[in-house]
From TrEMBL, chain A:
<dbReference type="InterPro" id="IPR051457">
    <property type="entry name" value="2-oxoacid:Fd_oxidoreductase"/>
</dbReference>
<keyword id="KW-0411">Iron-sulfur</keyword>
<dbReference type="InterPro" id="IPR029061">
    <property type="entry name" value="THDP-binding"/>
</dbReference>
<dbReference type="GO" id="GO:0044272">
    <property type="term" value="P:sulfur compound biosynthetic process"/>
</dbReference>
<dbReference type="InterPro" id="IPR011896">
    <property type="entry name" value="OFOB"/>
</dbReference>
<dbReference type="InterPro" id="IPR032686">
    <property type="entry name" value="PFO_beta_C"/>
</dbReference>
<keyword id="KW-0786">Thiamine pyrophosphate</keyword>
<keyword id="KW-0460">Magnesium</keyword>
<feature type="domain" description="Thiamine pyrophosphate enzyme TPP-binding">
    <location>
        <begin position="55"/>
        <end position="201"/>
    </location>
</feature>
Automatic annotation (TrEMBL), chain B:
<dbReference type="GO" id="GO:0006979">
    <property type="term" value="P:response to oxidative stress"/>
</dbReference>
<dbReference type="GO" id="GO:0044272">
    <property type="term" value="P:sulfur compound biosynthetic process"/>
</dbReference>
<dbReference type="GO" id="GO:0016903">
    <property type="term" value="F:oxidoreductase activity, acting on the aldehyde or oxo group of donors"/>
</dbReference>
<dbReference type="InterPro" id="IPR022367">
    <property type="entry name" value="2-oxoacid/accept_OxRdtase_asu"/>
</dbReference>
<feature type="domain" description="Pyruvate/ketoisovalerate oxidoreductase catalytic">
    <location>
        <begin position="22"/>
        <end position="175"/>
    </location>
</feature>
<dbReference type="GO" id="GO:0006082">
    <property type="term" value="P:organic acid metabolic process"/>
</dbReference>
<dbReference type="InterPro" id="IPR009014">
    <property type="entry name" value="Transketo_C/PFOR_II"/>
</dbReference>
<dbReference type="InterPro" id="IPR019752">
    <property type="entry name" value="Pyrv/ketoisovalerate_OxRed_cat"/>
</dbReference>
<dbReference type="Pfam" id="PF01558">
    <property type="entry name" value="POR"/>
</dbReference>
């Protein structure tokens, strides 16, 4: 039986447990459409896609889509994704991570993946709160954010992850918003098709702990052609700094930066298969020792 | 003196020590000395001792050569090669009336023995300071009555072409500066290569089918990383050094999920960081092989010295309950064979495998015979046959589910760190959680049954001896030699998890008086034996970062066996 690989066919029978109104629903739908369309347009079979999840509400996507998946541990999906790409360069590897997951627990891996330019896509479900552990602050929560672990308000400033990623060497940097669904799908498709490390910070509504719908609707705008030069570091940086995740400012969504650089995995020769051959090599090495 | 001791004393054997400052190439010089004796058909063993600094301090290597397999050092030496005064001062207890001392007279003013003016020699030969070692090697060859051609052959094998000439000239100066004291006979045995435990483990992994080795540097496991990285092209493997140990094990699991056989290497501190990945491997049933090389802890401990103090950490690391394979090879031959076996079994049973080494074994070197080290059995992973809908965690009788990898047509592979059902979907249902846990336990049982066909427990010496020495890992050879001195036999568990209860009972039948020898402070293998209902007898422990010397252990055994 050939499995149903249409967008609708990618849904699993697993019962969905996200809160009503959660931004994860639009991510799920648009990601599903994005890969179904890429599959159709580029002739890439669905079997060639691999999703990775961290731990958090975002990770449940692993259960909801009928795609190869590795549901990893908190903050650690990126090194696993790197391993997957190294082992098989035909695969499209997409990490779905949370902002607590990847900016707190897994920041080192994120920075190194950008530095390496391994060909994976990282989609951060940035709801600016810990959803699954019931409402603590994250590295992108605004100053003064009152979470369950910071009842008097966070004293730290949020980080601007786009700026961190630009500095770290990411070759594709974008931002989306879960209520701009069509735009979202295009952002996904572009990031997945980018050759190299691509990064999307997705401003996500958390209906339960951080519902910024009104704020986002009032501030977010879609970048237009000519708003910036996505091939230039300085131009991207300027745009990335327009909003710092803290003060009131217009919030641009779209692609900030996109360049080409050699891929990490190209630096390794692909190992020859065959146990017997490998053993012959061991034998020869010992025979001609030093 | 016992019959056995007299027998031992008639055997051919030599002990040599070379010492100097870190940065003077003592390790390489030691390996060249080992090569010299190896080329005459001797079996050699080298112990290398060095503090955690890059220049200065005191480094030394003790090389033993014998006409039979050995794997430990003795305190006394026949020849002491001193590149500085500290070497003579530090090793006074190793010298007796029969010891020949050769020293650098530009460093040591009034020494006894042969003084070589190394500063003058290298100035006159216009050679680099590192060639001092060649002068020492030359002098040693002459003292030991070894032909000059053999000396030159060893240098040719060890020294890069462009430095060869100056090394040969300097070696010749050393050779002619001294006289022959004794005469080392050529033996009728093949010249075996000299490998460290780290190199042997690396070769074993490749032999077992390794595709990628991933590691973050940490002494004493770095030797595996350096060796495999240096030979990656020759061996047809990939070697990766990522940002930290957390990344190391996660990358390895990503490779495994995609169908590549990966191994990682580390020491205690790095293994601490890997434990979350280890549990993930346990739950998601992804194979990974971990070379865990022990050094004294806790924490940073003593980085360049030795200990056997992470056994229970290796056995129990990670949250939850899942099966694992833990093996502790006792020498480079076992390190090679069991690394290959561990890698294959980790894939066959989809469990993490830990190869428990220590500094003594990892960085110690000995004569290596690949044919004597091949693993007992080949294993291939269980692969999906393509019939019906694929379920990554299909419930089977032996607990092992067939593997498929992403990219295969018509197959969706869902691996999961959460409790999951057969298809890999997250579950919190009581009966599914129970079924999953029981599947893991069934796998543990299958692995245990598999291991019944292996030599999981080894015994050495007279089977009817009334005394038994228990040891594990790198203490194997020192115990075998010391046992001969006190009329005991030796029992060595090679597999520590799943513990081979039956093989152990059999090996210990009629054990008589029992002593457990370990390089730790609390008797970790003794504790493991007690947990399984066995009496480990009394413990002889050493926990100063140094391995036992044969004579030292013999004396300790004589105190205990009265
Ligand atoms: C090592 C570890 N520490 C802590 C946790 C508990 N934990 C689960 S989800 C989570 C935070 C999730 O927040 P985020 O990444 O923002 O994801 P969201 O739930 O908002 O999608 C934490 C701290 C864990 N699972 N593992
Ligand atoms: S807590 Fe927030 S992120 Fe999690 S499911 Fe509910 S709305 Fe979505």
């Amino acid at each position: 039986m050939t499995p149903d690989r249409s967008a609708a066919g990618l849904i699993t029978p697993v019962q969905n447990t996200w809160c009503p109104g959660c931004g994860n629903f639009s991510i799920q739908h648009m990601m599903r459409s994005a890969i179904a369309e890429i599959s159709e347009e580029e002739g890439i079979p669905i079997e060639k896609f691999v999703f990775l999840g961290g731990i958090g509400c975002h990770g449940k996507l692993m259960d909801y889509l009928n795609v190869n998946s590795l549901y990893t541990i908190h903050g650690r999906s990126i090194p696993a994704a790197t391993g997957i790409r190294l082992a098989n360069r035909d695969l499209r590897v997409i990490c779905h991570v949370g902002d607590g997951d990847i900016y707190a627990e897994g920041l080192d891996h994120l920075i190194f993946a950008a530095k390496r330019n391994t060909d994976i896509t990282v989609i951060v479900h940035d709801n600016r709160v810990y959803g699954l552990t019931t409402g603590q602050y994250t590295p992108t929560s605004p100053t003064g954010f009152r979470g369950r672990s910071t009842p008097r308000g966070v004293a730290e400033q949020p980080m601007n992850p786009l700026e961190v990623m630009l500095a770290a060497g990411a070759t594709h940097i974008a931002r989306g918003y879960t209520r701009k669904t069509r735009h979202l799908k295009d952002i996904f498709k572009e990031a997945i098709m980018h050759r190299g490390f691509s990064f999307v910070d997705l401003l996500q509504i958390c209906a339960t702990y951080s519902n910024l719908t009104d704020y986002y609707d009032a501030h977010i705008y879609e970048m237009q052609d000519g708003d910036l030069d996505t091939g230039r570091f300085e131009s991207a940086l300027q745009k990335i700094r327009e909003w710092d995740y803290d003060r009131d400012a217009p919030i641009a969504i779209g692609t900030f930066y996109s360049i080409e650089r050699p891929l990490y995995e190209e630096g390794f020769s692909v190992p020859p298969s065959g146990l017997e051959e490998r053993r012959g090599r061991v034998q020869r090495l010992v025979e001609g020792w030093r | 003196m016992s019959e056995l001791m007299r027998g031992l004393n008639t055997m051919q054997e030599y002990s040599l020590l070379i010492g100097g400052k870190a940065g003077e190439g003592i390790n390489t010089a030691g390996l060249s000395i080992a090569g010299l004796f190896s080329s005459l058909g001797y079996r050699v063993y080298m112990y290398f001792d060095y503090p955690s600094l890059i220049r200065g301090g005191h480094n030394f290597a003790i090389i033993r050569a014998a006409d039979r397999p050995i794997g430990a050092h003795r305190t006394r030496v026949d020849v002491l090669l001193a590149l500085d005064r500290k070497t003579i001062e530090t090793h006074k207890e190793r010298i007796d009336g029969k010891t020949t001392v050769i020293y650098d007279s530009s460093q040591v003013k009034e020494g006894m023995g042969y003084g070589l003016p190394l500063d003058d020699i290298i100035a006159e030969e216009r050679a680099s300071p590192i060639t001092r070692n060649s002068a020492m090697l030359g002098a040693l060859a002459r003292v030991a009555g070894i032909d000059r051609e053999i000396l030159e052959d060893v240098l040719r094998a060890a020294v890069p072409e462009k430095h060869l000439d100056s090394n040969l000239r300097v070696a010749a100066r050393g050779y002619s500066a001294v006289e022959s004291v004794f005469s080392v006979k050529q033996l009728d045995a093949p010249a075996l290569p000299v490998l460290t435990g780290n190199e042997a483990a690396g070769l074993g992994l490749v032999y077992g089918g390794l595709d990628t080795y991933v590691a973050y540097p940490m002494t004493p496991s770095s030797g595996v990383l350096h060796f495999l990285a240096g030979r990656a092209e020759d061996l047809g493997i990939r070697v990766i050094h990522p940002e930290n140990e957390i990344s190391v094990i996660l990358m390895a699991l990503g490779l495994a999920y995609t169908g590549e056989r990966a191994a990682v290497g580390t020491s205690g501190g790095g293994f601490c960081l890997m434990t979350e990945g280890l549990s993930f491997a346990g739950m998601s049933e992804m194979p990974v092989t971990i070379v865990l090389s022990q050094r004294p802890g806790p924490s940073t401990g003593v980085p360049t010295y030795t200990a056997q103090s992470d056994l229970h950490f290796a056995l129990n690391a990670g949250q939850g309950e899942f099966p694992r394979l833990v093996v502790a090879p006792g020498d480079p031959h076992e390190a090679c064979a069991w690394s290959a076996t561990a890698l294959m079994l980790s894939w066959r049973y989809q469990v993490p495998a830990i190869i428990l080494m220590d500094k003594t074994l990892a960085e110690g070197a000995c004569s290596f015979d690949l044919d004597a080290s091949t693993p007992p059995r080949d294993h291939e992973p269980l692969l999906e046959d393509g019939e019906g809908e694929y379920r990554r965690y299909r419930l089977t009788e032996d607990g092992v589910s067939p593997l498929a990898f992403p990219g295969m047509e018509g197959v969706t592979v869902k691996a999961n760190s959460y409790a999951h059902d057969e298809r890999g979907f997250t579950t919190e249902k009581a009966e599914e959680i129970r079924a999953l846990q029981e599947k893991l336990l069934r796998k543990a049982g299958s692995l245990k049954a598999e291991l019944e066909g292996y030599q999981t427990v080894k015994t050495y010496g007279a089977p009817d001896a009334a005394r038994t020495i228990i040891c594990w890992g790198s203490q194997k050879w020192v115990c075998i030699e010391a046992a001969a001195g006190v009329g005991a036999r030796v029992v060595q568990p090679v597999v520590l998890a799943p513990f081979p209860v039956e093989a152990w009972s059999k090996a210990m039948a009629g054990a008589g008086e029992v002593v457990c020898v370990e390089n730790n402070a609390t008797g970790q293998v003794a504790r493991l034996l007690r947990e399984h209902g066995f009496d480990p007898g009394r413990s002889i422990l050493k926990y100063d970062g140094r391995p036992f010397a044969v004579d030292e252990l013999t004396a300790r055994l004589e105190e205990v066996f009265v």
